[in-house]
């Protein structure tokens, strides 16, 4: 009886240690809900919208982690590809289901091309993929802004004057996406279908030969080389898949909102996706579908209630809104600290087992 109790306690302890980050966020969510006094209907409706808008972008992070490349912050480029394609379709005045399909195809083609370039760069910076991908995202943003601030109306001839600034050079900061929003309203299951489709694609990839290669590369790159695996090709494929998924994910986001903020609509998509994934219990080396779906619910529940909870605590709406940015960045720092601590403990335990 005593052994059974000790065994149960040991299992419970291991479960808490392994899932410390999501358990912490669950507790914070419950506290936030209590403090904000938010209704179940409001929370459910808001959470549903956020799950539909953000899940695919989180799914885009899984394949590079599987390949041992850490968090792919260059998913921002996928978001930029979708925004670029959207502006082109709106400029060409292609509406309805034709415009909807066309913008998806163009964004996927652009994301494939950009994914190849990013993959090549990251293969040249092995071991420093995360910081390199972050810089790539910033560089991509600068080039994108230059095209739409100065290129449109000078080098690129616009067809739709309504999206242009009064000077005739540069695209307006906000573009109405009512034709695309109408498609989502008419077929509200589209975001769910895309989430299921992308989930099944990732699950399929994990079970294929490519998935086995990516796991081998992520586990030990030197062993992968010795097994005859084309490491660079596998890593590049992981980034291409990630960038293409990110482009679709961002399209679902902006179509659901119904408007495109041309110059800032893509900002922080990488940070929020990363924070939500880590909140779900993922690490820089391991992440799965469970982490995505647990993370998107926990992180965005806290994201919804935190401003209201902050306002209730400090009686200041501005401070309440600040809580959102604080949560996003503190989630990443907190999760990384816990993950590094757990990895160190695991290494020490493994070394002790080998010595015995």
UniProtKB/TrEMBL annotation:
Signal sequence residues: none
Record key words, sorted: Cell membrane, Membrane, Transmembrane, Transmembrane helix
Residue intervals passing through the bilayer: 20-44, 56-85, 97-122, 134-155, 187-206, 238-255, 267-285, 292-310, 322-340
Subcellular location: Cell membrane
Keyword Isomerase: no
One Pfam family matching this protein: BPD_transp_2
GO molecular-function terms, A-Z: transmembrane transporter activity
Entry-linked PANTHER family: ABC TRANSPORTER PERMEASE PROTEIN YPHD-RELATED-RELATED (PTHR32196), SUGAR ABC TRANSPORTER PERMEASE PROTEIN (PTHR32196:SF15)
Protein name listed in UniProt: ABC transporter permease
Source organism of this protein record: Romboutsia weinsteinii
């Amino acid at each position: 009886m005593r052994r059974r109790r000790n065994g149960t306690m040991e299992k419970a302890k291991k479960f808490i240690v392994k899932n410390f980050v999501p358990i912490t966020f669950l507790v914070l969510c419950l506290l936030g809900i209590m403090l904000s006094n938010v209704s179940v209907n409001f929370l459910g409706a808001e959470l549903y919208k956020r799950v539909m808008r953000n899940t695919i972008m989180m799914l885009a992070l899984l394949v590079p982690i599987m390949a041992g490349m850490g968090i792919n912050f260059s998913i921002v480029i996928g978001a930029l590809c979708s925004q670029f394609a959207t502006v082109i379709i709106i400029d060409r005045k292609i509406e309805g289901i034709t415009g909807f399909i066309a913008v998806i195809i163009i964004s996927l083609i652009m994301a494939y091309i950009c994914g190849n370039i990013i993959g090549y760069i990251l293969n040249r910076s092995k071991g420093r993929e995360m910081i390199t991908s972050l810089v790539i995202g910033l560089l991509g943003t600068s080039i994108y802004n230059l095209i739409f601030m100065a290129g449109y109306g000078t080098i690129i001839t616009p067809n739709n004057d309504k999206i242009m600034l009064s000077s005739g050079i540069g695209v307006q900061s906000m573009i109405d996406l009512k034709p695309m929003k109408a498609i989502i309203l008419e077929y509200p299951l589209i975001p769910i279908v895309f989430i299921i489709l992308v989930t099944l694609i990732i699950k399929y990839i994990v079970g294929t030969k490519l998935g086995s290669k990516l796991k081998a590369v992520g586990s030990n790159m030197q062993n992968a080389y010795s097994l005859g695996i084309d490491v660079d090709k596998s890593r590049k494929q992981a980034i291409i898949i990630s960038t293409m998924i990110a482009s679709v994910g961002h399209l679902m986001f902006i179509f659901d909102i119904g408007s495109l903020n041309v110059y800032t609509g893509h900002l922080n998509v990488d940070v929020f996706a990363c924070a939500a994934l880590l909140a779900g219990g993922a690490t820089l080396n391991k992440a799965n579908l469970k982490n995505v779906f647990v993370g998107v619910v926990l992180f965005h529940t806290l994201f919804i209630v935190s401003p209201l909870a902050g306002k209730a605590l400090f009686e200041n709406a501005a401070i309440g809104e600040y809580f959102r940015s604080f949560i996003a960045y503190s989630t990443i720092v907190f999760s990384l600290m816990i993950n590094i601590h757990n990895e160190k403990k695991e290494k020490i335990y493994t070394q002790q087992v080998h010595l015995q």
